[in-house]
Records
---
Amino acid sequence: MSKLHVAATVNGEPVEFLCEPQQTLLDALRDELGLTGTKEGCGSGDCGACSVILGDRVVCSCLVLAAEAEGARVTTVEGLADGAVLHALQRKFLEHAALQCGFCTPGILVAAKALLDRNPQPSETEVRFGLAGNLCRCTGYDKIVRAVLDAAAEMRGETVA
Amino acid sequence: MTYLGGRSDLRVVGTRPVRPDGVDKVTGRAAFGADLRLPGMLHGRIKRSPHAHARILRIDTARAAALPGVLAVVTSADFRKSRPKKRSSARGRSISAISPPTFWPAARHCTTVTPSQRSPPPAPPSPRRRST
């Protein structure tokens, strides 16, 4: 079977890789590019652990073919921090203890970033709606929602007591 | 910290530490089991019965075993102490596993295992399984 050549921009870096026609974007990120921060939870689009930003949309990378990334911009959890400087969301997740086992965390951080990119001032309801596609089985959603709201406030330059 | 009786010797209680593995987990660096890549590593995939209630008459592994990259197909026949076939209900039980060298072929090849089955009448509740 002949492989497909795909050129895309992942986390701001131009990348090229070979993939099989049926290979998912998730497998290409993890196996061809070595970006294992994006997790496979269910493999069927239910859990959101594999969330990445494709263009300007959050997608379950397990439901997207790698070939669909041709020419597109992809953002994964590895692309959130700026070198050694953590993104505000990442810092607030640590501060608010919004993670435990950490398996859902990459997908939730990516989904939260996409949410704040299009809505810098979300209400709690909007945060919960924006993260509705991401399941967490240990931390509980309250701490995650608070971390996202706090990060949003900080990114707007506000300080929350 | 008056509720602790003003104790000053407590170094952990009452603090809000950042979990030591936190930075690795929020950056995607933390390596979970499925993230490890070792030289010569094999991957296995379990094929579970597609039938909620059925007697397994036959498991055809020929097509899966013939696929390139598949090193082994394992079924209950490979284990000496497996339960007798007559009594095996297919309820969610794994019926075979495959070990090809990479993750992707594993997922794909796994789906070609085809168990033959015919649905028996629903089994009466086994006395051994009865609760209370």
---
Amino acid sequence: MRQEGHWKIWVWRVSAVGTLIASLSRIAPAVADEPAVTAGYRIAVHGVSPERASCASCHQENGAGQPDVGIPRLAGLTSSYIAAQLEYFATGSRYDPVMSPYATMLTRVERREVADYFASLPVPEQPDLIPPNGATLDHGRTLFLDGDYHTGLLSCSQCHGSTGLGVGDFSPRLAGQSDAYVAGKLQQWQTGDLRDPKGSFMRSEASHLTQSDIAALAAFVSSLKGKEAGKP
Amino acid sequence: MKKSTISKIVLVTILVTYVATVATWKISGLFTARTGAFQPPPDSAIPAGKFGDVVRFGEQIFRDPATYAPQFVGNELRCSNCHLQAGRQSGASPMWAAYVAYPAYRSKNGHVNSFEERLQGCFRFSMNGKVPKLGDPVLVALESYSYFLAKGLPTDETAPGRGFPTLPEPPLAPDYERGAKVYAQNCASCHGADGLGQSSGGKMVFPPLWGSQSYNWGAGMTSIKNAAEFIRANMPLALGGTLSAQQSWDVAAFIDSQVRPQDPRFNGDIEQTRKKYHNSEYSMYGRPVNGAILGDPAFTPPAGTVTTGTDAEPFEAD
């Protein structure tokens, strides 16, 4: 499954070049005194360089991402979180072969603008997923809500909230993020970049997880609808 | 050396090794080699049947009292905010150690308390709520959960891991200003610069440390000593032991010098209430901070505010 996902990602990345060529004519110039969200829309959809596809060619204009290949959904994340990630990509404290060059191309103001744009979008409907088996989901739910005292794992809900909506500027929304993205990131946390001081916390949490724990958590997180507590 | 002496030594060595090995086998199921603390059972060991159901209900209350026992809860704290890992973590007042330490005499109310009566105190003070009557299903469930966690542990008021690890007096007297800096650097990103906690989707995630939704002036956590010990061992979450003892005392003094709900034992006179219940260098109740007296009803939120309307008749202990 996971390998198939990887394969898809690369096919997709190559095909993005095609999208790029198609979108070349649409690159718009910067406009003085433009509101941040509008400026962000221009960057997100039209890009800033004729040599690169726009953000929207991967993350979609509505910020839904590409769940099946693990391209994250940006709609639903806070502007400060998205801007911080772009900053990490640009400064090298978080590395990704696709994202790092993109973030470097943008100025700090543009990173903030494009973050404002994606953060302003309504959370799109989740695609109909084939539900994972009940035992996997139950295992994921237990780890997410209760942690595991015997391995030292704290519950994910301790920082991301019991409905996975995240906490303001502190922790990102996880509810409804794609299975493939969440699993990939949890694997990366075990050895990858720390991003910021909170990264050492995430690494220590991820170090308690087995491959089947990761699969279960990813399945559970992607199944969360992100409802407010006490609302249907 | 005589042959018989050598054989005696060999025999004694074998015997000692055997006893040690057997003892290790016996104990290793219950205690970890690393901390020496008791290992409570996992949730998967909760038995099937009616008793197991009540244990599970107790754990649900413990993790989310506002949902499972709203008639008794007056703030946005959870039991598991301080009793970490849902009452399992040693050094964070684990419930298994508390369970085997009762009944016990408490100077706080001057008589021998049953375990259930001890739990009542948590609702009255730490949860700023109403006290469930003895025998209330909520208390029975919490008692059952604690019993389940303590299974295999002998009764002992000094079980290793009980309460918080004691902290020696700091080199410098705890200081509000230094504490404010420690707070800003280490605590504010989770608990908020205003100390009022942070929520996700309408549910509190990082507990409020002061203000109307935190523990009231009667809670044990208002003792700077208790707070310092808890912080030193357990905070920031999962990074316990990273603050120095001095930092822990300072930040505890800062947190326990803030506005919080009234002591439910308040008799209308701050000075008298301080003398009777807060006569300790570790309590800031009744002391001036930033030009105001802590506990002054003019700006102190009320005690025991349970807004959920239910049929339960609240019962005030002592």
